[in-house]
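Open question from group meeting: does this chain pack into something compact, or does most of it stay loose? Before anyone orders reagents, we agreed to write out a predicted structure and look at it together. Recording both the input and the output here so the notebook holds the full record.
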Amino acid sequence: MDFRYIKCVNTNHLIQDFFEINVNDSIIPLSSKIIPTAQSHIVYYNSEKNLISDFKNKTYKNTGLVILGQSYKSYTFKAYNAYSSFGINFHPTALYKILKTDLSKLTDKHLNLSKVDNGLYNLLNPVFKENLKGEALAIKIENQLLNLELHESKNTKLVDDAIKVVYKKEGKINVEELLKIFPVSQKHLENQFKKIIGLTPLKFIKLYKFLNLMKKYQSNKESISQLIDYYGYYDLSHFTKDFKLFMNQKPSEFFKCDNIYLNNYLKP
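Structure tokens returned:
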């Protein structure tokens, strides 16, 4: 598998970065666990057959232009033929601003973009049909998206500002501490997070903290015991409980498996 991230040309509040993947026949059939990313995505799958995303009680089969909502637990991704894909990693609030719709409707769903927003589909799909690659494709998409009229309000600003704090703290913050910074009710904060990014603030914070820990562990710079202490888990059993929540298996089981997709994604 060839996997690489592509940075944005312009610093912006919509797109965090892009990724490009090429999967050849040598690793087909492919089955890999996918970690929840605390982001929403739009991905173009260039594949002759549908690619499969298996959630606990739902299977999504897609090719072409697909929108991936937030998820709180891992899922299994499967491919039965060689394929390539190009993905847009959005800032958590970006799709709400673009689509002007409740993002909780997309949580744990992978849907063809044409079924969600035909206007955005008609804007992006011709770009992917140009057969551009890498940085050239990223620049073209970036220019298209940054020219869109966005839906912004005091509530999107609230969620954006709260996310900035979560990012700065690397997820080492709780909802009560957020409410001391932002003088709104807990119910209002929860409602706006669910509507604007698709997850409650508690779930977003826990997920972002866990994701940061996993990325640092993958970089081999710190031991798991050091990271558990750094991110404020009480002990190994506390971390194991969260790990099972997000990954649907124990750490000991997970690290025995070869999750090629996930190993690439977690690389810095």
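Observations to bring back to the group:
The chain has a mean pLDDT of 93.
The longest helix spans residues 201-218.
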